[in-house]
Design the sequence.
């Protein structure tokens, strides 16, 4: 019953969502910078910005919530409550309590400067001092304009990277990649390098990259790259505090007490330079491997907040660190996407940086499955996920074979220890690197083995028997990338190996236990009379009609009869759909058979036969996070398009939803409909290829509408003559193409 309710919730929420609505899903775990406000903390992360309220709730902001980009590196707040966030691209966004976010793009548009990323931000007397990779820029928050930009500090090299800014009365201190400098804000010409005092060498020791600068009880302090805090006594910089553990990163003060963080711990430093540890060290087994502190800020009430690689945390004496972040996937890596029988979206992270596990999204919340969160999982290097009936999920891993997960979390692994002949890689038979997995029409699970020391394909039958296969004419250790299974249960394997580049088609004739009827077919990638790629086949997808669509490094190809795989057709050569030359990274087929193509220039949506471009989405015309697409999936139950890039996951609500098999109750909205204000009436509950007629109460035909082909259709409120319909009640009549069934709903039109 729970699964039925969940599926209904997913379908209902998608149906009520505005078609064309975008969402962004990113991991906000990597907190690079934090700033304390009157109500909790604000954080700059690799997945956007969040506000952690004092009551424990979060507001998350991405490029669909007012921000311009997604990768933020610095954040600050002024006395009036405005929040200033800077990004790795140089883009600045400012949040005002009364007006929300606005964009400041001057730095990112300064193309004459090669490196423009924001490194730190501090506010002082109504101005934001923005440290960058090329110097220090001053932004007037009231006038919303830039003033001076300082690119040279005393004798330091031109355009030195600014790592930190600190104010001490009228003095402004900067820590740079080449040393430390101080200027006086009463001097009206700090653009002149001569008006800065700088230190890059003292007592014969090069300062080098200075991480932070701070003035404590009148004494300037600097964190040097040799992991020592040095103190200036008025004539010389002398070592003052060494690291008790880890790399010293930042300093902060509250009520006369100096604090510092290393990447591993929080410390209090007294006037005699004695160091007291506060809280646990992060290298304890209690915390996920790789957890490191990134930044510190202290609220007015003395609450110490820290940003880390695992979220935001507050210091509470005597208790372990508790890291928190807004709901989201465990990382921004998405190698493969699938939907289970309950309508839940599953994502496999792949193996970048060792992998980040798998994540599940039910349309409302994310649940992450990792080694740190579930000891039954052996590795975070999960390369693919495939659903089986009954809520069972199967996962491919990098080095640990495959495993199944029951709805209650019970996990079973399959590798060389319990499956005779299970392939490892050529250099290590005990390291089974499984690239992908998929079920065929008969419930057989197929697995793809990378650099296999034996066979490249595996097959597990529903009875639990395993069989393994390879093209006998090719050597072991082949570089295989992905595969698809066609309507005849043939397995199409993409190969990118010096020994062969293209597609290997394996036909077991649906008898994996019997090898005598097996056959292999080769389609070379660069065959001018076949696939005709420059070098690589990049993606495969089977459409609703059973046709095989092939993505290459120079365009799209189609095999309209997979039973005759050597008949390859070139796609989209006409002027309405000229995508020849595009590098196709991914292909997805929606429920009404449109083709969604991921490329290095965004997403192209083609009509069912591939003859027309229905839409093109990129970072210039949509909230896509990146133009280079990693993978795509169209949710069959909701019509939501999920688009993965290296920067995170985007979703787009579409009208291409799995149609109903029979008519039930039509849902229409908005109702009443206000022409000119509302974009359209959405009609939900259609069967495949429904015909919609709009009738007046007297039975006159007002308009006849063609639908996109799925469960949802639209009426723009106009008559067949193109005029808006008058105010009144109208009947919406939807009928199957052959007239065998129909459904009726009412809508009120209100002209204002």
Sequence:
């Amino acid at each position: 019953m729970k699964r039925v309710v969940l599926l209904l919730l997913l379908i209902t929420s998608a149906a009520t969502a505005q078609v064309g609505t975008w969402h962004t899903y990113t991991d906000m775990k990597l907190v690079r910078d934090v700033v304390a406000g009157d109500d909790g903390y604000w954080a700059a992360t690799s997945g956007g910005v969040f506000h952690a309220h004092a009551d424990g709730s979060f507001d998350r902001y991405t490029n669909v919530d007012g921000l311009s980009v997604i990768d933020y590196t610095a954040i600050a707040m002024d006395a009036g409550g405005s929040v200033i966030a800077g990004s790795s691209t140089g883009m600045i966004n400012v949040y005002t309590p009364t007006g929300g976010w606005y964009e400041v793009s001057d730095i990112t548009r300064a193309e004459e400067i090669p490196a423009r990323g924001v490194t730190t931000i501090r506010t002082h007397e109504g101005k934001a001092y923005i440290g960058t990779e090329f110097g220090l820029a001053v932004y007037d928050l009231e006038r919303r304009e830039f003033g001076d930009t300082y690119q040279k500090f005393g004798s330091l090299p031109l355009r030195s990277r600014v790592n930190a800014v600190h104010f001490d009365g009228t003095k402004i201190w900067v820590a740079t990649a080449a040393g430390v400098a101080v200027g006086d804000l009463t001097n009206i010409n700090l653009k002149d390098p001569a008006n800065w005092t700088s230190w890059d060498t003292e007592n014969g020791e090069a300062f080098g990259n200075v991480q932070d600068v701070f003035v404590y009880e009148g004494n300037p302090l600097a964190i040097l790259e040799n992991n020592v805090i040095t103190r200036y006594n008025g004539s010389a910089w002398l070592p003052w505090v060494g690291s008790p553990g880890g790399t010293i990163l930042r300093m902060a003060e509250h009520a006369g007490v100096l604090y510092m963080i290393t990447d591993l711990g929080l410390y209090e430093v007294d006037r005699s330079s004695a160091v007291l540890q506060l809280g646990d060290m992060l290298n304890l087994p209690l915390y996920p491997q790789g957890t490191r502190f990134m930044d510190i800020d202290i609220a007015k009430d003395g609450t110490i907040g820290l940003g880390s690689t695992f979220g935001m945390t507050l210091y509470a004496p005597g208790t372990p660190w508790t890291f928190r972040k807004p709901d989201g996937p465990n990382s921004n890596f998405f190698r493969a996407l699938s939907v289970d029988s309950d309508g839940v979206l599953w994502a496999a992270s792949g193996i970048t940086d060792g992998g980040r596990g798998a994540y599940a999204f039910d349309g409302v919340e994310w649940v992450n499955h990792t080694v740190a969160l579930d000891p039954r999982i052996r590795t975070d290097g999960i390369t693919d996920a495939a659903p089986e009936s009954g809520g069972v999920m199967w996962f491919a891993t990098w080095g640990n074979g495959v495993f199944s997960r029951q709805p209650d979390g019970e996990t079973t692994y399959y590798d060389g220890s319990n499956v005779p002949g299970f392939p490892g890689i050529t250099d290590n038979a005990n390291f089974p690197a499984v690239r992908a997995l998929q079920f065929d029409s008969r419930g057989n699970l197929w697995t793809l083995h990378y650099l296999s020391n034996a066979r490249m394909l595996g097959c597990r039958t529903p009875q639990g028997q395993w069989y393994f296969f390879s093209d006998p004419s090719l050597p072991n250790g082949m570089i295989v990338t992905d595969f698809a299974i066609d309507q005849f249960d043939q397995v199409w394997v993409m190969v990118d190996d010096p020994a062969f580049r293209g597609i290997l088609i394996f036909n077991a004739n649906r008898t994996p236990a019997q090898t005598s009827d097996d056959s292999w077919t080769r389609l070379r990638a660069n065959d001018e009379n076949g696939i005709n790629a420059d070098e690589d086949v990049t993606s495969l997808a089977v459409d609703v009609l059973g046709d095989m669509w092939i993505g290459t490094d120079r365009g799209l190809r189609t095999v309209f009869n997979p039973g005759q795989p050597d008949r390859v057709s070139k796609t989209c050569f006409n002027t309405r759909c000229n995508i020849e030359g595009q590098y196709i990274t991914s292909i997805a087929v929606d429920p009404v058979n449109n083709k969604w193509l991921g490329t290095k220039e965004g997403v192209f949506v083609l009509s069912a036969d591939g003859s027309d471009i229905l839409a093109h989405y990129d970072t210039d015309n949509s909230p896509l996070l990146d133009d280079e697409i990693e993978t795509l999936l169209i949710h069959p139950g909701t019509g939501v398009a999920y688009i993965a890039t290296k920067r995170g996951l985007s979703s787009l609500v579409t009208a291409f939803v799995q149609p109903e098999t029979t008519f039930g109750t039509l849902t229409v909205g908005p109702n009443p409909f206000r022409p000119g204000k509302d974009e359209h009436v959405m009609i939900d509950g259609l069967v495949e290829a429904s015909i919609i007629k709009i009738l007046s109460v007297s039975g006159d035909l007002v308009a006849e509408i063609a639908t996109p082909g799925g469960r949802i259709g639209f009426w723009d409120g106009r008559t067949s003559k193109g005029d808006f319909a008058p105010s009144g009640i109208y009947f919406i009549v939807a009928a199957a193409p052959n007239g065998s069934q129909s459904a009726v709903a009412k809508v009120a039109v209100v002209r204002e």
